[in-house]
């Protein structure tokens, strides 16, 4: 189309005249800026270019970043990556050449965006998230996004979502809320990792994380303050008991003192909480990640102590007994993956006791079929949502609906390999998840999410609602 044809088609002469008249009416002190902003709104927004690159995540491992361009500007997104990759989740495309980044490069995924995905999306309206995601799903044609890579598809999906919000001139959480059919935005209760164990640390603690949940705060800002203060009191407790080198941190930012039992970890967290003065307002959660120490049908809580490992296996029933006692002795309100990902029987039995929230992470892998099964069998009562296990914003919204229809809690989660992208903060607010797990209240990749929640709370002003005690049912 020639420029003249374009001008005629979009009636630009008339729109320019309108912009000038509007500037005069508004008595603007800066007519050029006013007219250019006015004209920007008049331009129909379409995706004009999608450009991806390889960057590094918080572990120093390659991941995908994308710049999506519309007539309104450039919108950037990058995707996280996790350690636990299961057969039910969308596939992250990695090059596999061991000589380059130990096989972890993502240049094929980047190429897929720059060529195939870009070609398919250029010209589309960025507000039609469902169509954009569907176009990529159709292009990929595989069930687990193996062809283009879930890392490629998700990066573009998120960038398009940001572009859609800009096109509508609304905050990102508002746009996602519209896409989800939700009208009330809710600030989630943060679940801060404070102690790291399991495969994330060199200590002998078998479980992956001990977390704190400030459910008794009145605002998110207060919850963040409680989390930060507890974290620093914990640092002091650890220094007193284990020396300063106990304060090194693991992948998710939790301290990694050389403790060997769950109770030892819970005791120091309880001590830190008591030093804050918020005792009744902060609850404790644990991510057991029991799949990592399940051997056959037994659990080896000493799997990280070479001289004890394999000598004292626990049965599923023993594990249930242990959780029962822990829930009595500590303010535990949430247990994630208490059993192996295929140990449905003990998960069901434990969940039915109703002692605390039972979160399905490895059990579900954010997979709709596994979520449906777990709802039907009451194998857990909360979804850990990892968006890169699904691969598009639209499908993430769908699984949240599924979980909410089952009256479950929803925890929007980061991955151990993160970037400075704060998308999950807006997502958590928009879908009314009630809970977000984004690591410790330290380190840039975690604070990108928590700080974004501060901004959203500030922007919502009087309208801001913190999930607080309704963290499971918001
Ligand atoms: C988890 C997550 C985040 P990963 O188990 O909940 O901590 O770990 O990203 O390695 O799956
Ligand atoms: Mg987990």
Automatic annotation (TrEMBL):
Residue span(s) of domain Enolase N-terminal: 47-176
CC terms in the record's Gene Ontology section: phosphopyruvate hydratase complex
GO molecular function, one term: magnesium ion binding
Active site per the UniProt annotation: 252 (proton donor), 386 (proton acceptor)
Gene3D superfamilies in the record: Enolase-like C-terminal domain (3.20.20.120), Enolase-like, N-terminal domain (3.30.390.10)
Keyword terms: Glycolysis, Lyase, Magnesium, Metal-binding
Record domain Enolase C-terminal TIM barrel: where: 184-474
NCBIfam families for the chain: eno
Protein's name in the database: phosphopyruvate hydratase
Pathway in which the depicted protein is active: Carbohydrate degradation; glycolysis; pyruvate from D-glyceraldehyde 3-phosphate: step 4/5
Taxon lineage: Eukaryota, Viridiplantae, Streptophyta, Embryophyta, Tracheophyta
Family listed: Belongs to the enolase family.
Species this chain originates from: Corchorus capsularis (Jute)
């Amino acid at each position: 189309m020639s420029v003249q044809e374009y001008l005629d088609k979009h009636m630009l002469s008339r729109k320019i005249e309108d912009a000038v008249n509007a500037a005069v009416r508004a008595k603007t002190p800066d007519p050029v800026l006013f007219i250019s902003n006015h004209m920007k709104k008049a331009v129909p927004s379409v995706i004009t270019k999608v450009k991806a690159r390889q960057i590094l995540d918080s572990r120093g491992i390659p991941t995908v970043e994308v710049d999506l361009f519309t007539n309104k500007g450039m919108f950037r997104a990058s995707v996280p990556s996790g350690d636990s990759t299961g057969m039910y989740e969308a596939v992250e495309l990695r090059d596999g050449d061991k000589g380059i980044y130990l096989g972890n490069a993502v240049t094929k995924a980047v190429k897929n965006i720059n060529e195939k995905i870009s070609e398919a999306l250029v010209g589309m309206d960025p507000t039609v998230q469902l169509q954009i995601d569907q176009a990529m799903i159709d292009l990929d044609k595989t069930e687990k996004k193996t062809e283009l890579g879930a890392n490629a598809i998700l990066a573009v999906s998120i960038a398009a979502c940001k572009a859609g919000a800009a096109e509508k001139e609304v905050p990102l959480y508002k746009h996602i809320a519209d896409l989800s059919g939700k009208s009330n935005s809710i600030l989630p209760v943060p679940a801060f990792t404070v102690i790291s164990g399991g495969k994330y640390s060199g200590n002998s603690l078998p479980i992956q994380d001990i977390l704190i949940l400030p459910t008794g705060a009145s605002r998110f800002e207060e919850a963040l303050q409680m989390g930060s203060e507890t974290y620093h009191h914990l640092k002091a407790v650890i220094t007193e008991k284990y020396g300063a080198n106990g304060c090194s941190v693991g992948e998710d930012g939790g301290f990694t003192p050389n403790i060997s039992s769950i109770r030892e970890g819970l005791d120091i967290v309880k001590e830190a909480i008591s030093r804050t003065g918020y005792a009744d307002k902060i609850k404790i959660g644990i991510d057991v990640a029991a799949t990592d120490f399940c051997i056959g049908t037994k659990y080896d809580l000493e799997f990280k102590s070479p001289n004890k490992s394999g000598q004292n296996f626990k049965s599923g029933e023993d594990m249930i007994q242990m959780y029962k006692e822990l829930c009595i002795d500590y303010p535990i309100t949430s247990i994630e993956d208490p059993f192996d990902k295929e140990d449905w029987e003990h998960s069901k039995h434990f969940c039915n006791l109703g002692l605390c929230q039972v979160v399905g992470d490895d059990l579900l892998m954010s997979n709709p079929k596994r979520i449906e099964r777990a709802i039907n069998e009451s194998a857990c009562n909360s979804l850990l949502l990892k968006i890169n296990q699904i691969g598009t914003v639209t499908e993430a919204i769908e699984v949240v609906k599924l979980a909410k229809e089952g009256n479950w809690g929803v925890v929007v989660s980061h991955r151990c390999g993160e970037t400075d992208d704060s998308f999950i903060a807006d997502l958590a607010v928009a879908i009314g998840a009630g809970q977000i797990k984004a690591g410790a209240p330290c380190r840039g990749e975690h604070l990108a999410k928590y700080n974004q929640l501060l901004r959203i709370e500030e922007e919502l002003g009087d309208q801001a609602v913190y999930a607080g005690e309704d963290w499971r049912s918001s």
